[in-house]
Write a structure and sequence with these properties.
Structural class: alpha/beta
Helix content: 25-40%
Number of strands: 15
Largest sheet: 9 strands, mixed
Radius of gyration: 21 Å
Strand content: 15-25%
Shape: globular
Length: 351
């Protein structure tokens, strides 16, 4: 590896890959060297857009051919594990988009491969890089909330079923809103709470709109209802080893007033919400709400940029990562537990 340049290749050339490429291409210490995608037109379009010299339709051929240092995995969920493991075994450090994998078993195999080949593996969780997240994280770490008793997680769309990609196919994604958007707010909440170890899960899933044709004007109309096999609405509860618990609600489609993207924490000394970022406490014999007067904004505070910058610094300069794969594995175990519980109709243990 060069001391001043990180050479990056990409597996997957879809929408999220374009976002990775856009941020990385703007960094002077990064060089984009190759990309692969099973759709030849897609990968060639990305390579033309970002000046990437080498395109492939076979990621294994790319891994065996290119001179690079690191790989960004931006595939559908079902390909996260095989692509990541192949890249690690080929000697590359990796960032993989959320969720870590389709299952915790596959996720553990990814962590094992990274350890065996002494490579770095990072999970693409960007919301922990937000200014509001770090404000709440510092408040928790400083003891402002005391012991966290309970968290409530919401990633809800009133009618936002994706009409592109494979988001409606359980066989390729592993699930619907829970694993696609719920994972974002779940991981952020878990991070702010201090990443406690999950021990059990109870989940319920409902499909009642996405698998039917609809004439309702919605965020993304005309999704493929014939191949839709995921949940519209997921609800669940997680218990942790330290006595904390949280509930989660995630939907692509639900009869609610408006979209919700938030979490709430309740502790024995105080509480908090993420949107807007507020703290709730008792001071001077009064109940007090407080919030930051100003939070950083603009390019310097862009959480996705900070995510990609942190990964580059982690690989190129051995700086700590804020999103280790171990955190991705704990979140994956929670997702697995919620889906398994919904299938069994009872609480399940998480090990």
């Amino acid at each position: 590896m060069s001391e001043d340049k990180l050479r990056v290749a990409f597996i997957g050339a879809g929408g999220i890959a374009g976002t990775h490429m856009r941020y990385l291409s703007a960094m002077p210490d990064v060089e984009l060297v190759a990309a692969s995608d099973v759709i030849e037109a897609s990968v060639k379009r990305r390579c033309d857009e970002f000046g990437i010299p080498h395109s492939f339709t076979d990621y294994e051929a790319m891994l065996n051919t290119i001179e690079a240092d690191a790989v960004s995995v931006c595939t559908p969920n079902g390909l996260h594990a095989p692509c990541t493991i192949a890249a690690l075994e080929a000697g590359f450090d990796v960032i993989v988009e959320k969720p870590l994998a389709m299952s915790a078993v596959a996720g553990q195999q990814m962590l094992d491969a990274a350890r065996e080949h002494d490579k770095k593996l990072v999970i693409g969780f960007q919301h922990r890089y937000e200014a509001r997240t770090n404000f709440l994280k510092q408040a928790v770490d400083d003891g402002g909330l005391g012991n966290i008793l309970y968290g409530r997680v919401q990633a809800l769309r009133r009618r936002g079923i994706p009409n592109w990609g494979v988001f409606g196919r359980k066989d390729l994604q592993g699930g619907g809103p829970l694993i696609d958007i719920g994972v974002h707010v779940l991981e952020t909440t878990h991070f702010v709470m201090g990443s406690p170890k999950p021990i059990s899960a109870t989940g319920v899933m409902h499909t009642y709109l996405g698998d039917k044709p609809s004439s309702v004007i919605s965020q993304w109309p005309n999704w493929d209802h014939k191949t839709y096999t995921v949940e519209d609405l997921a609800v669940g509860h997680i218990r942790f080893e330290n006595g904390t618990s949280l509930s989660i609600e995630a939907s692509f489609a639900a009869h609610i007033e408006k979209n919700e993207w938030n979490f709430t924490l309740m502790g024995d000394k105080g509480g908090a919400t993420w949107d807007p970022p507020q703290l709730f406490s008792d001071q001077h014999d009064h109940m007090v709400n407080s919030q930051p007067h100003w939070l950083p904004s603009g390019q310097a505070a862009d959480p996705f940029r900070k995510k990609m910058r942190n990964w580059v610094d982690h690989v190129l300069h051995d700086k700590p990562t804020m999103a280790p794969a171990e955190h991705g594995l704990m979140v994956q175990k929670m997702l697995d537990g919620l889906y398994e519980s919904a299938e069994k109709g009872s609480e399940v243990s998480i090990t």
